[in-house]
Amino acid sequence: MTAELVRGQNHPLSKSRVEIRVSAGTPVLALVSTGDDEGRSTGPESLAHPGARALPGLEVPQTIAAGHRFTVDLDAVAEAVHRLRVVLVLPPGGPVRFGAVPASHVAVAEPEGAELAGYTLTGLESETAVVALELYRRQGAWKVRAVGQGYAGGLSALLVDAGLPAPAAAELAAAATGLVASGDITLAAMPTGAAPTVPRGLRAPLDAAPPAPAPQAPEPPDPIPVSDVPLAAGSGPAGDTAGGPPSISYAHPRRRRTSTEPPEPAPQAAEPDEPGRPPRPVAGDASGWSMDERLYNQVWGMFEDMARTVAAYRSAVEFADSRMDRELDEALSDPRHRLGGSGDGARATARARREELVAQARAVLDRDLAQLVAESEVVEPALPAAYARWDNPVWHAPGTPRENPLALRLGDLSLPERPELRIPMLMRVPLERGLWIDNGRTGSEAAMAMDTDRLRRAAMDMAVAHAVRLLAVHPGDKYSVHVIDAAGAGAASLAPLVRSGVLAGPPASGAAGVTQTLARLTRRVDLVQMALRAGAPEDLPPDLDTAEQLLIVHDFPHGFDDRSVTQLRYLADEGPAVGVHLLMVADRDEASAYGPLLDPLWRSLMRLSSVPDSHLADPWVHHAWTFTPDLPPQGSRVLDQALNRISEVRRSARP
Question: CA-CA to 636 of 20 to 30 Å: which in 12, 219, 235, 554?
Answer without folding.
Answer: 554
